[in-house]
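Mods, move this if it's the wrong board.
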Amino acid sequence: MGKTKLIDNISGLQLFQLMRFVTFLIVSIVFTKSHLTRADIGSWEMFLFIAGLMSFFWVTGIIQSLLPLYHRNRTYRKMGDNGTGKSPEIFNAFLLLCFFSLLFFVIGHSIKYHFSVFNFSGNVPYLNLLLLYLLLSNPVCLIEYIYLLNNRSYRIFQYGLYTFSLQLVLIIAPILMGKDIIWAIYGLLAVTAVRWIWLIVLLRRYTEMKVSFEFMKEHMYLGLPLILTSLISGSAQYTDGVIISAVYRDPAMFAWFRYGAKEFPLVLMLANGLSSAMLPEFSTRTRMKESLIKIRLKSEKLMHICFPATMLMMLFARWIFPRMFTPEFQKSADIFLIYTLLVIPRLLFPQTIIVGRKKTHIALIASIIEVLVNIPLSLLMIKWGYGLVGVALATFIVYTLGKVYLAGYLWVKMKIKPGEYIPVATFLIYSTLLTLLFVLIDHRIIDIH
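Not the wrong board. Structure tokens:
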């Protein structure tokens, strides 16, 4: 009983995401202090970047649309209870993930000799391993959500602890032994194989292995706008990464940017965990009022944690980066300072209500607005001499605009005022203080270096 009281679905996902971030952070630190060159580190970062770029949008769409459909869909409501207590929805979502993984694996192989990054035309380093990783790594993203939907929150924590610990060892051990970067990639593939074994066990335990094209059709009807939303707008790191790689064509510049272009992990894990865990809460109209109250109270608690922690991180960012990595990565600190500002829009959750209510086309419109502004604004920032920092600043601006649009839709079309799900006074006070602190640090009026 003690375990379940300490960790619920929200905190389980939050801890899982924190462990993932910490694992790759430790890897980054070890790599910068090892025998690897900046070009080697840039190749590793590009490997992860391309794998994510080719899959994050459809993985996000399939999983986010599964959450409000679980036990609340037309297909299995018509069929009735299967009597086993096992979920056919999860199994069919797994099949969709496998289908998309295979599809992009085939597409990747068909264009691999016509693909270029940093002028490595037709000879992108480790491309065959990258495609294999793309094929295998995405279906296992379902594991933590199988536990979530079955209220096995402590298992999310256990799964993350075991697999990320193993991943850390398998990636950094070869580098510490003086091996080439390719051995770290082999370690990443090895832990993916372990996760596949874990996934198969969970599928046998929690799912009814019955193919339903009717449910897949319903799932994709809801999920396609979310897939397109992620594809169009992407996350800040993917959109910005494409722009940086296209403009500078320099692995070292890309490494500088990637090391700084990271949101504060505490904010990410708490915000994403709350948003994902709350999606099923908004899937029924009868619980709408209490769900709005719940998300307002939960988000206010996050603000009391995340805003002060972000301010503290901003104060020490320029001191931390050259010590955590190497002095060469000092430039990354300025990029990171911009990304910490994303805590302001990140702690607003209009998208959770909209996706939970299955109005995924509205999220698609918001993403179109974001990309129409982001790319030209980023290029203008570079042209005006802001460089890598300008690209990060453009991301903050457009992400905020997207949240404003979604909040406006809830207010105008669904008659849900911001005050019903946002602790407005708390949010405005913290946002003002954070912005003021950023200006003081940016102008080096406050400088802990």
